[in-house]
């Protein structure tokens, strides 16, 4: 930890890795946190800099390990990455882009899914690319079939190797008509990053339209790309031969904002989330209100707190503008304290309810139905993916020894420990550095009572 010891955080004598916390719960979190730029935009905008022929500047870049992975992968390909002209900004100079050695790429791939998005830009710059096997949270098998099918339609030749995939584009890349089987965020980004410099027009149907996608489109347009967003998830891209660098300030991190809001709800606290904006959080705010939360929208952020007793809700995760799959884990902790039966229906990933095991160990009453809930109405075609957690409350939570399963599940474990009575030992907290910048400093600033013990 870099910050000097303050308040309630004491650190073990040995140099702690910040991976194991002893958390004493039962205290409301109160105070102010500033959300960073969005992890799931900044990492993609960094990849987009490969497509430009001049320097790019990205602002409000979060200090996260996922950003570090992308920075290393850009550097092994010859991009000069340095601090920009303001705190939290990066200067990306792609003028010396060159091929990298497979083992170097492998070494830097880390536990991230972003490397798959290097395909299009590297094929445009170098005519070839090697992408190592992907990491990322274990919340499903995370296939990349939509990505590879799209790249083949652009004219790429995809060769599967034991350690990853090698791609080439013997005749260059040309525009294509692509319909995604599902509005996949990553696959939409794959198409955007490939189509902008392909020869001809690309028509993308059933595209993801998350605010982070629209922000990536803004980045590409600043570079000189010609992209139009039509109704009904259709995006047209007219390929151009040259793109320049961009200067862009990342959209705020909606997942971090929703996570701190859920922490205020669960601990009956009050947290001002500086940088959060209402427009990109509409669906979250509706569910928050129905669960008994209240919020005040300010020019520079949103104040989150309870508005009265917690209430049970039925929520189904969905693609934007629905309730984001990344929001359900932190919210579920508060639902364990609501009077009555809540249902959280996960329809995006097939294995994103594992975090509830720890909540049950702490006293929550949660039953996970591995194949969703029976019933006539079936909104999504991906029936086999669905899981539904039925939560009955209120159930007092008590401290326990728990291990963080993934990024957003891990955040919910920390909130649960803060909500529970007594002490919890939470291991594997390191993974939170992938998605929450200065996480322990922010916890401390909000009055959490914890020790870093490993
Ligand atoms: C992005 O993942 C985010 N990650 C995820 O956030 C987020 O949960 C997800 O979008 C949905 O919003 C990043 O942006 C780095 P998808 P991505 O492609 O692009 C299936 C976090 O906590 N699918 O929209 O991988 C897939 O298995 C992370 O920050 C295929 O079947 O999500 C999933 O069931 C977690 N084939 C569904 O589509 C494919 O080729 C949605 O995935 C691609 C995806």
Summarize the structure.
The protein has about 450 residues and is α/β, with parallel strands linked by helices. Helix content is about 30%, strand content about 25%. Bound molecules: ligand EPZ.
Describe this structure in words.
The model is unreliable at 1-7 (pLDDT under 50). The relative contact order is 0.16. The strands form six sheets. Strands 1-24-2-23-22 form a five-stranded mixed β-sheet, covered by helices on one side. Strands 3-15-17-16 form a four-stranded mixed β-sheet. It has two domains: 5-35 and 252-452, Enolpyruvate transferase domain (UDP-n-acetylglucosamine1-carboxyvinyl-transferase, Chain); 39-249, Enolpyruvate transferase domain (UDP-n-acetylglucosamine1-carboxyvinyl-transferase, Chain), CATH 3.65.10.10. It is built from 13 helices and 24 strands. The radius of gyration is 22 Å and the shape is globular. α4 (119-126) packs parallel to α6, α8 runs parallel beside α10 and α8 runs parallel beside α12 (407-419). It is of the alpha/beta class and 454 residues long. α12 links the parallel β22 (401-403) and β23. The longest helix is centred in the middle third of the chain and has 14 residues, at 254-267. The chain binds ligand EPZ. Residues 39-40, 113-114, 137, 140, 142-147, 182, 184-187, 208, 255, 324-326, 348-349, 385, 407-408, 435 line the site of ligand EPZ.
């Amino acid at each position: 930890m870099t910050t000097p010891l303050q308040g309630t955080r004491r650190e073990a004598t040995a140099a702690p890795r910040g991976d194991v916390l002893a958390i004493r719960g039962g205290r409301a979190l109160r105070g102010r946190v500033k959300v960073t730029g969005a992890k799931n935009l900044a990492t993609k905008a960094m990849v987009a800099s490969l497509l430009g022929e001049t320097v790019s500047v990205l602002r409000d870049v979060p200090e996260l390990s996922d950003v570090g992975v992308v920075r290393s992968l850009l550097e092994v390909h010859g991009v000069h990455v340095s601090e920009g002209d303001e705190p939290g900004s990066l200067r990306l100079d792609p003028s010396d882009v060159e091929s990298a050695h497979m083992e170097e790429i492998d070494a830097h791939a880390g536990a991230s899914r972003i490397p798959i998005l290097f395909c299009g830009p590297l094929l445009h710059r170098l005519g070839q690319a090697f992408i190592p096997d992907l990491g990322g949270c274990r919340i499903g098998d995370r296939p990349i079939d939509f990505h590879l099918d799209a790249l083949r339609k652009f004219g790429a030749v995809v060769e599967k190797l034991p350690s990853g995939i090698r791609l080439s584009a013997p005749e260059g890349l040309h525009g294509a008509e692509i319909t995604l089987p599902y509005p996949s965020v990553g696959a939409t980004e794959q198409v955007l990053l490939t189509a902008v410099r392909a020869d001809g027009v690309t028509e993308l149907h059933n595209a993801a339209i998350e605010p982070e996608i629209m922000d990536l489109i803004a980045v590409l347009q600043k570079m000189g790309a010609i992209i139009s967003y039509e109704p009904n998830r259709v995006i047209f891209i007219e390929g151009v031969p040259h793109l320049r660098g961009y200067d862009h300030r990342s959209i705020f991190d909606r997942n971090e904002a929703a996570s701190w809001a859920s922490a205020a709800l669960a601990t009956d606290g009050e947290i001002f989330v500086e940088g959060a904006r209402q427009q990109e959080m509409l669906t979250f705010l509706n569910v928050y209100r129905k669960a008994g939360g209240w919020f005040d929208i300010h020019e520079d952020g949103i104040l989150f707190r309870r508005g009265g007793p917690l209430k049970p809700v039925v929520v189904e995760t969905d693609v934007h503008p629905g309730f984001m799959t990344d929001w359900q884990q932190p919210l579920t902790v508060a639902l364990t304290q609501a009077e009555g039966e809540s249902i959280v229906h996960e329809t995006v990933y097939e294995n994103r309810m594992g975090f509830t095991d720890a909540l049950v160990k702490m006293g929550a009453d949660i039953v996970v139905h591995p194949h969703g809930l029976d019933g006539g109405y079936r909104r999504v075609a991906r029936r086999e993916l669905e899981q539904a957690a039925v939560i009955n409350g209120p159930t007092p939570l008590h401290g326990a020894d728990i291990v963080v399963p993934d990024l957003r599940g891990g955040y919910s474990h920390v909130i649960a420990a803060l909500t529970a009575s007594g002490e919890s030992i939470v291991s594997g907290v390191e993974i939170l550095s992938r998605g929450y910048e200065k996480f322990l400093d922010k916890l401390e600033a909000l009055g959490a009572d914890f020790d870093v013990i490993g």
